[in-house]
Amino acid sequence: KSTAARLVHGLLAPPADAEWPLLTRIARQFGEPARWRPLVQPHHTIPALSMIGGCRPVRAGEITRAHGGILLLDELLEFDVTTQEALREPVERGVIAVARAGEAVELPARFLLLATANLCRCGQYAPTGENGCTCSEKRRRQYLERLSGPTLDRFDLFVYTNGWLADEKDTSLEGVRERVRAAQRFASARGRSSARNRDLGWDELHREVSDFQRRLLGPLQAESMRRTLAVLRVARTCADLDQSESLRPHHLDEAMALCWASVKALRSDAMAF
Q: Could you tell me the pTM of the whole model?
């Protein structure tokens, strides 16, 4: 899981010319060179103050260090719950407002949040398929309760890795990178308002959905607008990877599996404990 998450860093688009001054300035604050988009992987013992920034005078935290790149939280459920919850605002807004002793500063914090996690102490539990979990239901529930619903909703994609080895395929990182670059070029050629699908708004995405598809999304929309928006953004990404102008049924099916069915499986299993 950790290796796959780190490989995503190599798939990011190069920084635009306009991004370099800020990336360079932030990197210098942390005594680092600005050679590429940052990959920041704090240890799970990090306190909330070091994660988001603070002290007096105000100092930037790890989320500002990750601005323009990736913040990778390996073993998310081992992070203190307060630290997890502190990420909700910057993930939503792309900035963090820090106020300490009368000094208020707004710091940049627009990053791609990736996380890996075991869902129990023994590391064998998965709500899909067979697993060899040896934890009691009580211990499993206590561990899963470290991940709140609002925090979970900040992740557009939720993927289980327990079935990956059964579907072994030879895939090169270079091949994946070229496919991603082709999708980015296709998206840019369409004259989209944002170069990144994660920045697309509800109105722009909803226009691409047919009346029939809207009816299919109705139950999900009634339950969670944030999760519905995640489904539409990922469906648009699937369409870009296929270089398809329109959202086709299989794009929505794939997005529903990645963004909603996997989350629903975890929630349903947790409620059954």
A: 0.83
